Amino acid sequence: MAITYDWIFNPLTVKPAEGSLTDVVVTVDWRRTATDGQYSADVYGQVSLRPPNPADYTVFADLTKSQVEGWVVGLLTQATVDQYELALLNNIDNQRNPPAVPMRPPWEN
Q: What's the number of domains the chain is made of?
């Protein structure tokens, strides 16, 4: 089965007002998930955003997931996201094929 990756952005922390703008996103809590059938793994973090440019500001109600993803990936860098995805892949591989497993001592059976 192929691994499916997804972004979850919750919560978005907003300032009620910044200059003439309202509901300005200042912090994004993010989670990157990986799922492969019954196996899943995730990594999470938070990024702080720079003040928006009023000329290309998007009203909070009009924000899209892909727009927020662009902010997060831009701040993390694609190379960092790739490293996270490799770690998630390794985590799922270790769930499928554990490198070590706990066992009861034979004298306790």
A: 1
Global confidence as pTM: 0.88
Coil, helix or strand at residue 77: coil
Domain-embedded: residue 107: no
Rounded Cα distance, 52 and 56, in Å: 8
Q: What is the pLDDT of residue 66?
A: 97
Asked if 51 contacts 107 with a C-beta cutoff of 8 angstroms, the reply is no
The secondary element (H helix, E strand) that includes residue 91 is: helix 78-96
Domain of 73, in residue numbers: 4-93
> Are 98 and 54 within 8 A, CB to CB?
no
pLDDT confidence tier of residue 29, bands split at 50, 70 and 90:
very high
